[in-house]
Design goal:
Layout lengths: L10 E4 L15 H6 L1 H7 L3 E4 L3 E2 L11 E5 L6 H13 L3 E6 L9 H8 L11 E3 L18 E3 L5 E4 L14 H16 L4 E4 L26 H4 L5 H16 L2 E4 L9 H5 L7 E3 L17 H19 L4 E4 L9 H5 L7 H12 L4 E5 L20 H12 L4 H11 L45 H13 L4 H6 L1 E5 L6 E8 L2 E8 L5 E2 L6 E7 L17 E2 L4 E6 L4 H4 L2
Parallel strand pairs: 1-2, 1-13, 2-5, 5-9, 9-10, 10-11, 11-12, 12-13
Antiparallel strand pairs: 3-4, 6-8, 7-8, 14-15, 15-16, 16-20, 17-19, 18-20
The structure holds 1-O-alpha-D-glucopyranosyl-D-fructose (TEU) and calcium ion (CA).
Calcium ion binds next to loops.
Length: about 575
């Protein structure tokens, strides 16, 4: 595999609205991010992905862009962004912006023009179709609930919005529009960013080969994914986008694409793929609080392991997934993977070890390093997100009581991950000196960065996890080493090796609350990381024997090279 600069990235996602306020308006901003750069450097990451900071009416917190060329004044100015890029670079970090080009805001001047003349130049920038007074062009359901179509005034025209009603989908079939987008993308790259996280890009091509489908819910609508996700023909757009923009800058591109069939992985993220990397979605819909996994967290983690390992095998030697456990669209991982009563230092510290040493680009989300969790609300009005409201309405329509619907929202809403960052035990967690736009989790008094800048804390453990991933002695094996699953028969252990000439590294984690013993001997040369380090745990076997693990014990190991090295695979 040809080496690339971005193979060495370890990312940290920032949700700017909730990261750090610098001008006392209760909203996080770019100068606030700059103020916290030293702490990010201390954590050890070398790539920052900023969720959108462009001009936006904030119907979807910035994923609805009304001017691609401007920074929203709420977040600061173009000068602030330039300073952030410079200061991040000085600390060895590169900055990714979010690229949202499946849709704009309905406040974008293009859409304002389209409203006036749906058949005119700008009407052709969007996906507009004729329906009739009460009947939209088809019964697709928006990804965020309700019809995906919105009527344009009193006319027969409807516009498509796969996301909120304030996010009309762009018409990628229109070359003129594509040219505008490429120009814009190149302008941002000229500013010196390291690349983009690319939003919802799997949806840019739509297939209109049907009108209505049988309803799949009480709302009479149909989820329609296969007509607007990874649709045949999207490849042409993706190739063109890459050639006209990213490729010229050798930038890092990380796309949000779900459900790529194995036979297309190479086209997507192979050496000459459309993108450098894509998020691996394979665990995203696992939540021990909800759905099929309710109350079955151990089985769930075993299932996640099997899926992640299968994905690793599919990807071996082809390219790089981005591995992560949290983002701004999911509840926090302690709540998703572990019941409340099982959340403690040991269980939380084993979580990053599960994914940081897999093949791919590891990514953290703000607050993950201190173990932030969700803040269940008592009233639906305490949520701010439109998608969350739509889901709530959907649950009521499905026959749930208000209490049941709210419980489900508390257990699943993506807004749980969007509470303000907890920096210190000061008022409002040091996030702001005024009431934040979205209430901070009351546990900030104990769970905060300042309290965890000391030995034995979760954040310190995350620092070690990152440092070991970037340690020059092992880094090439983490990046380019082969992947070999181990202890796969176990329902408690998450074990694998990474091998490269002259080096065998391994991860061995007990993801359960009971002690565990390996089935096979592990030929340990050196323990590189152990979340029980601070305690006496002589139980661990060294040398040639089987390994006994404490509940939640997470080990990163260097193994002896031996004759088995070649026969294992
Ligand atoms: O999310 C897109 C989204 O909701 C995905 O789960 C989508 O269903 C997936 O692409 C399916 O393949 C992104 C952002 O992360 C989210 O915050 C925004 O609200 C959304 O796009 C709209 O911009
Ligand atoms: Ca602010």
């Amino acid at each position: 595999m040809r080496e690339k600069w971005w193979h060495r990235l370890v990312g940290y996602q920032i949700y700017p609205k909730s990261f750090q306020d610098s001008n006392s308006d209760g909203i996080g901003d770019i100068p606030g991010i700059i103020r916290r750069l030293d702490l990010l450097q201390e954590l050890g990451v070398n790539m920052l992905w900023l969720c959108p900071v462009y001009k936006s009416p904030m119907m979807d917190h910035g994923y609805d862009i009304s001017d691609y060329t401007k920074i929203d004044p709420m977040f600061g100015s173009r000068e602030d962004l330039k300073r952030l890029i410079r200061e991040a670079n000085e600390r060895g970090m590169t900055v990714l912006m979010d690229l949202v080009i499946n849709h704009t805001s309905d406040q974008h001047p293009w859409f304002q023009e389209a409203r006036k003349d749906p058949e005119g130049k700008y009407g052709k920038y969007y996906v507009i179709r004729k329906g009739s007074k009460d009947t939209p062009p088809n019964n697709w359901r928006s990804l965020f609930g309700g019809s995906a179509w919105e009527r344009m005034g009193e006319s027969d025209y409807y516009y498509l919005h796969l996301f909120t009603v304030g996010q009309p989908d762009l018409n990628w079939e229109n070359e003129e529009l594509r040219e505008e987008l490429y120009r814009m993308v190149n302008d941002w790259l000229e500013l010196g960013i390291g690349g983009f996280r690319i939003d919802a890009i799997s949806h840019i091509k739509k297939d209109f080969s049907y009108r209505n489908l049988p309803a799949d819910g009480p709302d009479g609508l149909h989820a329609g994914m296969r007509w607007f996700r990874n649709v045949e023909g999207i490849e042409t757009f993706l190739n063109e986008l890459k050639q006209r923009t990213f490729q010229k800058y050798d930038c890092f591109t990380l796309a949000e694409v779900d459900d790529i069939p194995e036979d297309r992985l190479n086209a997507y993220i192979g050496e000459d793929g459309y993108y450098c990397s894509v998020f691996d979605f394979c665990h995203c819909f696992h939540n021990q609080q909800d759905g099929v996994w309710k109350g079955r967290w151990k089985e769930m983690l075993a299932d996640i392991r099997d899926r992640v390992f299968a994905r690793q095998a599919e990807m071996e030697g082809k390219g790089f997934f981005c591995n992560y456990q949290e983002n701004h669209d999911m509840i926090r991982v302690p709540d998703r993977f572990l019941p409340k009563e099982k959340q403690n230092f040991y269980s939380l510290s084993m979580l990053p070890v599960l994914y940081f040493y897999l093949a791919g680009i590891p990514m953290l989300y703000q607050g993950q390093e201190i173990g932030m969790t969700g803040y269940p609300r008592e009233r639906i009005e305490e949520y701010a997100d439109l998608a969350t409201y739509n889901n709530y309405q959907g649950y009521l329509l499905d026959g749930m009581s208000e209490k049941e619907a709210l419980d489900k929202i508390n257990a699943t809403s993506r807004e749980n991950a969007r509470t303000p960052m907890q920096w210190s035990s000061e008022a409002f967690g040091g996030f702001s000196d005024v009431e934040p736009w979205f209430p901070i989790h009351p546990d900030y008094e104990v769970c905060n960065v300042e309290a965890q800048r000391m030995p034995g804390s979760l954040r310190e453990f995350f620092r070690k996890v990152v440092a070991l991933r970037r340690n020059g002695t092992y880094e090439d094996t983490w990046i380019y080493g082969s992947f070999c699953p181990r202890e796969q028969e176990s329902r408690q252990l998450w074990g694998f090796e990474r091998r490269r000439e002259g080096q065998r590294l391994a991860v061995l984690v007990n993801f359960s609350d009971e002690p565990a013993v390996t089935a096979k001997p592990w030929n340990i040369r050196k323990v590189l990381l152990d979340n029980y380090e601070a305690r006496e745990t002589a139980a661990r076997g060294e040398g040639c024997g089987v390994v006994v693990l404490q509940p939640w014990q997470a080990l990163v190991l260097e193994l002896e090279l031996d004759h088995e090295l070649h026969s294992f695979k």
